[in-house]
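User:
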Amino acid sequence: MKENKLLLQEVVSNINAKLFKGDMNFYISSIESSQNNFENTILYLRDKKYLKNIDKSKSKTCLVSIELIDFASNFDNIIVSENPSLSFALLTKLFKKNEVDLSLNKDFSNTLSIGTGSQISENVKFGKNVSIGCNCVIEGGVLIGDNSIIENNVVIYRNSKIGNNTFISSGVIIGSEGFGFAKQGSKWVQISHLGKVVIGNDVSIGANSCIDRGTIEDTVISDNVIIDNSVHIAHNVFIGERTAIAAKVGIAGSSIIGADCQIGGMTGIFGHLKITDNVILSPKSNVYRDVKKPGTYSSIFPLIDHFNWKKISILISKLDKIKFF
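Assistant: Predicted structure:
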């Protein structure tokens, strides 16, 4: 089994950064958020808004920009970068390359059914009465709970966790890389996503939907969530219990959706937003700000004839010039 442990010297030399102070022989085991309980982790401080929970971190090492050095004085090891986003991208790649193999045992007991052409890694663990369809790919470290059904042509990437009584339709992809990049000159450097996808109990996921793994923290789908076909849930999204999501919804990264919400088809939700519990979003809504109160929300015009729509669109474009008395 490969141990996920890197000396600070190796980290610094591979992420386009410098050690401001610290011990090059100190070892790093993982990247963490500000709320972790381990000393041998590296904390990434991107900007000042992430400083509010810094006192909760037990990390002894941090990666910061030059502007934030003064805020990191309590850390034993300080890594400084002129381009911290790029350094973070390179850091995730370094840990992905060095990722731990969990080495669990393959378990084909308890009435497990596996369809023709499916490929199951050696370190996957199944609960009782699990059914896997044809031509599925399930990577290492995956856990699938009791009575769950995985239909044909499903891909479940490494370390994903799926609860009991969950139904996953054909063509679903769970745990794929999120859409995250940092700029290096004229090129893009992909951020490797080291989190996982955690799916609760009694969840239903429709055909051809895609749920990305988290960057560091996990992407979480809570109990009793129902997801329609062709839905995209990006990295680090949290979906609360009993929320229903209709077809072709797109939820951008790091948004938090509350419990008992209903999201209409083709709705787009911007990243890093918070939607409280018991919110209904009408189909084709465009959500670009937090929703703090329960209720029903819409952001579209009803269907009208094209000639009238052209007149209305001209008026909308001139609203900033209209004086209201």
